[in-house]
Amino acid sequence: MGKNKLLYPSLTLLLLLLLPTDASVSGKPQYMVLVPSLLHTETPEKGCLLLSHLNETVTVSASLESVRENRSLFTDVVAEKDLFHCVSFTLPWSPTSQEVMFLTIQVKGPTQEFKKRTTVLVKNEESLVFVQTDKPIYKPEQTVKFRIVLLGESFHPLNELVPLVYVEDPKGNRIAQWQNLEVENGLQQLTFPLSSEPFQGSYKVVVQKGSGGTAEHPFTVEEFVLPKFEVQVRMPKIITILEEEVQVSVCGLYTYGKPVPGRVTMNMCRKYRNPSNCYGEESNAVCEKFSGELNNEGCFSHLSQWTQTLDEEFLSRGRCS
Questions:
Q1: Residue (of 8, 55, 5, 49) closest to 31 by Cα position
Q2: pLDDT per residue over 125-155, tens digit each?
Q3: Nearest alpha carbon to residue 254 among 262, 245, 242, 265
Q4: From residue 42, how far is each of 136, 152, 228 by CA, in Å?
Q5: Residue ending a domain, choose from 199, 221, 243
Q6: What are the residues whose beta carbons fall under 8 Å from the beta carbon of 234, sequence distance 6 or more?
Q7: Reduced to 3 states, what is the DSSP secondary structure of residue 124?
Q8: What is the tally of structural domains in the chain?
Q9: 3-state class of 282 per DSSP?
Q10: Same structural domain for residues 96 and 133?
Q11: Neighbour-count burial for 39-66, b at 16+ CB within 10 Å, e otherwise
Q12: Which distant-in-sequence residues (6+ apart) come within 8 Å of 16 by Cβ?
């Protein structure tokens, strides 16, 4: 048996102080056993033993007893005068969700023997079930992908048999079902396709746990299209030749009023009154191109240097003359 000086401080402990007759006298053998008053199955548990003032070699044993079985936790020979020792053990899954068992501790030597029996509660660890879909809304004929995550009360993954998993439509019909599903390492992934004309509305994935409880996760099926938006351009209706600068704003707003995120690219052109065909399309107008990111309000503003644009116009016209 290895030695362990540390105990988990968060454990609720049942302390059994085992003292022989007249143990209060200094130097007499003393025994103490510490175990959790609540033990979970399929989870590593720990019990600790303190022996002091031993004057002979003793055999120490611990066992759990119930109407169904007797299970030995440990048996060891102790020759040290003083000993503090912890041992780990794991109880198997129980057909009943919980049961009361008897913990028996026995210390036996050539001249001394002591036996103590007390009760502890043994429970199957309650599993935590989480269901996740790959998205909240689906369209007809799309494939619904979801995963089931099983964790223990201490958030470690479980290997467990799930009796039933099914998908229910808005009318209460089961449209997909899996029975006796093996979940390994706490994770199982499943998929199923939607028909071309499913009921639209709220669906749910239902997971039935071995303990009898259930976990549910909703999702929606509907015909939806990407949201539409409109582009608004704000600039002066009239620009005179005396204007040196022109403020231009471009905004993108969804039809429900929310701003559109993204980037805008814009051309601002001034057509010639008497266009020339010297340079093709370039002879019809002089243009300024600018771009930028839309702000939190879905807008972008640009200050155009109108004087420079006019100068370019006259320059272009001069090239054609």
A1: 49
A2: 778 899 999 999 999 999 999 999 998 877 8
A3: 262
A4: 35, 10, 55
A5: 221
A6: 248, 249, 250, 251
A7: strand
A8: 3
A9: helix
A10: no
A11: bbbebebebbbbbeebeeebebebbbee
A12: 32, 33, 34, 35, 105, 116, 118
Q: What CA–CA distances, in Å, run from 213 to 125, 128, 158, 209, 306?
A: 13, 10, 16, 5, 73
What three-state secondary structure class fits 133? strand
Is 24 within the bounds of a domain? yes
Give the domain range for residue 109.
13-124
Q: Which of 85, 101, 124 is the last residue of a domain?
A: 124
Helix (H, G, I), strand (E, B) or coil at 187: strand
Given a contact cutoff of 8 angstroms between Cβ atoms, the answer to whether 256 and 268 are in contact is no
Q: Which has more pLDDT, 37 or 190?
A: 190
Q: Are both 41 and 87 inside the same structural domain?
A: yes
The CATH number given to whatever domain includes residue 304 is 2.60.40
Nearest to 97 by CA among 124, 125, 59: 124
Q: pLDDT tens digits for 54-73? A: 888 888 888 888 877 788 88
The tokens for 275 are 């266009």
Can you count the helices (H) and strands (E) in the chain?
A: 1, 22
Residue 226 is predicted with a pLDDT of 67
Rounded to whole angstroms, the Cα distance separating 97 from 163 reads 16
What single DSSP character describes residue 311? H
Q: Which two tokens stand for residue 100?
A: 């009361």
* Complete edge-to-edge strand list for the sheet that includes strand 30-36: 13-18, 30-36, 45-52, 83-89
Q: Tell me, what CATH number does 150's domain have?
A: 2.60.40.1930
pLDDT in tens, 203-259: 999 999 877 789 999 999 998 766 788 889 998 888 777 777 888 999 998 877 889
